[in-house]
């Protein structure tokens, strides 16, 4: 028995009905009348209708379903999206597509689907506006968070500025401290300044009575004590800053005494209210002074060492230049002797040849000595000199030079920096002059005048003590003069100008 042509539930989608033409399913679909969400969600596999009985009339055009209500949006396009245009019968295929398109347009018009499509379009536009508004809201929220962070940062700066103003009112300023540029002391200085500021903020910089009354008023008395404490503390801090700015490498004790004097003055002026600078705060400011002096001493020491290094390099260059000039001179003499000897030999003057060969041997020995001095940087002359007119009788200078003419170095030491020339007690050559000098320096290390800059080779010893040390160290020396003339000093003393 065949099933008559009519609209039946779509076996692939129960929410729709599909037209059965009596022989097969067609592509015509429509929403199912009275379909519920539950019915739409449950797929119904309708059995394939049996073929109609022979002789039964086939319906060529599907009738329109009567009064179908739409319960949800649906896709009314036929399932043509996965079909290809056939090579043969393309015209017929296009006519079928036009027919289906017209039919779908009629469905849209019949059930007022235009409004639904417009609603969907409008809904999409509104959704886009909502998404845009949400993005704008997120951006504004991010700006608000950033503004709050900036506000918090500015609030902290305001608090810090207020604290700074309060400290400046008490004489605490962030002035330039010498130790700020020190790689070693900068961290200590920063921590110390933090303790100084915290002590002032906590009220631990000064101490005064709490029982003072002014015009029989405790409140006025308290205000008077507070004002006086701030005034005198400001004066103390200003003096501490001046001491730091004026301290030098060698006057730390003077600067500390100057600041301690201010503490005593404040204590005397504040006797009525028992006002004084607390010892712990005064100790912090003294330590600040010490850091400044330590850095300045380090800088001064570095400058002196650099100056001594430059002087040593100049001395070394002079010695090398002297050796080079002497070597050139001796080579010329050697060449002259050799050429003269060759001429005498050609003339048969044996006596002249022997005489010049002896002189040539002296030149070659001198040349060998110069070569040795140039190659051996430890060889040189050790000198022991003094300057009675400038330093007294109990001070000598012990040093060494690589000059070929060591007295040139002694003369340079007695330049315009001292009033009289140096007097020489000993001047002798040593194969290892560096070791000889070091041995004498170790012997008198405790009596060195400058214990910071070891290149200053002055010692508070007498020439007799130096001679005794040379003998103890078994240093070979030909001549040592304990008493020297000191002609310039004696002449000046005799004329009454020394």
Explain what the structure shows:
The protein has 498 residues and is of the alpha+beta class. Among the domains are: 1-58, no CATH class; 377-498, no CATH class. 57% of the residues lie in helices and 9% in strands. It has 13 helices and 9 strands. Helix 4 (186-201) runs antiparallel to helix 7, helix 5 packs antiparallel against helix 6 (252-269) and helix 6 runs antiparallel to helix 7. The protein is elongated, with a radius of gyration of 56 Å. The relative contact order is 0.05.
From the structure above, extract its key features.
three-stranded antiparallel sheet; elongated
Topology:
Blueprint: E1 6-9, E2 16-20, E3 25-31, H1 37-41, H2 90-110, H3 113-169, H4 186-201, E4 206-207, H5 218-246, H6 252-269, E5 276-277, H7 279-347, H8 350-375, E6 380-386, H9 388-391, E7 396-401, H10 406-413, E8 423-430, H11 433-443, E9 458-459, H12 463-472, H13 487-494
Antiparallel strand pairs: 1-2, 2-3, 4-5, 6-7, 6-8, 7-9
Helix pairs in contact: 4-7, 5-6, 6-7, 7-8
How many helices? The count is 13
Structural class: alpha+beta
Strand content: 5-15%
Q: Strands of the biggest beta sheet: in what spatial order?
A: 8-6-7-9
Quick overview:
This protein has 13 helices and 9 strands. It has helices at residues 37-41, 90-110, 113-169, 186-201, 218-246, 252-269, 279-347, 350-375, 388-391, 406-413, 433-443, 463-472, 487-494, and strands at residues 6-9, 16-20, 25-31, 206-207, 276-277, 380-386, 396-401, 423-430, 458-459. Strand 1 and strand 2 form a beta hairpin.
């Amino acid at each position: 028995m065949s099933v008559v042509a009519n609209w039946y539930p779509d076996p692939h989608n129960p929410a729709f009905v599909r037209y059965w033409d009596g022989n097969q399913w067609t592509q015509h679909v429509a929403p199912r009348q009275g379909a519920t969400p539950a019915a739409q969600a449950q797929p119904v596999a309708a059995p394939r209708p049996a073929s109609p009985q022979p002789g039964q009339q086939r319906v060529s055009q599907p009738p329109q379903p009567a009064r179908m209500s739409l319960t949800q949006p649906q896709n009314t396009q036929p399932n043509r999206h996965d079909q290809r245009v056939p090579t043969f019968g393309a015209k017929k295929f296009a006519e079928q597509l036009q027919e289906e398109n017209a039919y779908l347009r009629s469905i849209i018009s019949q059930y007022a689907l235009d409004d639904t499509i417009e609603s969907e379009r409008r809904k999409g536009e509104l959704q886009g506006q909502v998404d845009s508004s949400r993005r704008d809201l997120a951006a504004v929220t991010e700006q608000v968070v950033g503004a709050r962070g900036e506000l918090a940062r500015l609030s902290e700066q305001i608090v810090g500025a207020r604290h700074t103003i309060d400290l400046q009112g008490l004489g605490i300023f962030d002035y330039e401290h010498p130790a700020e540029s020190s790689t070693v002391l900068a961290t200590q200085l920063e921590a110390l300044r933090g303790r100084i500021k915290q002590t002032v903020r906590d009220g631990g910089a000064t101490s005064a009575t709490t029982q003072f009354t002014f015009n029989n008023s405790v409140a006025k008395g308290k205000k008077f004590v507070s004002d006086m404490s701030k005034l005198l503390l400001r004066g103390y801090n200003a003096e501490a800053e001046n001491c730091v700015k004026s301290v030098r490498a060698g006057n730390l004790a003077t600067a500390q005494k100057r600041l301690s004097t201010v503490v005593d003055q404040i204590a005397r002026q504040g006797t009525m209210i028992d006002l004084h600078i607390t010892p712990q705060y005064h100790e912090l400011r003294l330590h600040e002074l010490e850091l400044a002096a330590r850095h300045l001493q380090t800088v001064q020491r570095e400058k002196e060492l650099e100056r001594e290094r430059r002087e040593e390099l100049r001395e070394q260059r002079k010695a090398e230049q002297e050796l080079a000039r002497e070597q050139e001179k001796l080579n010329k003499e050697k060449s002259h002797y050799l050429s003269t000897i060759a001429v005498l030999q050609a003339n048969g003057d044996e006596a002249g040849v022997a005489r010049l060969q002896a002189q040539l041997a002296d030149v070659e020995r001198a040349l060998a000595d110069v070569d040795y001095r140039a190659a051996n940087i430890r060889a040189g002359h050790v000198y022991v000199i003094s300057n009675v007119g400038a330093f007294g009788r109990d001070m000598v200078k012990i040093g060494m030079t690589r000059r070929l003419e060591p007295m040139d170095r002694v003369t340079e030491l007695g330049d315009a920096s001292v009033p009289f020339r140096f007097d020489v007690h000993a001047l002798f050559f040593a194969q290892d002059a560096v070791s000889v000098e070091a041995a004498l320096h170790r012997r008198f290390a405790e009596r060195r005048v400058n214990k910071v800059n070891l290149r200053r080779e002055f010692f508070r010893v007498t020439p007799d003590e130096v001679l005794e040390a040379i003998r103890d160290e078994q240093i070979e020396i030909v001549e040592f003069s304990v008493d020297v003339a000191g002609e310039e000093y004696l002449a000046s003393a005799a004329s009454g100008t020394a």
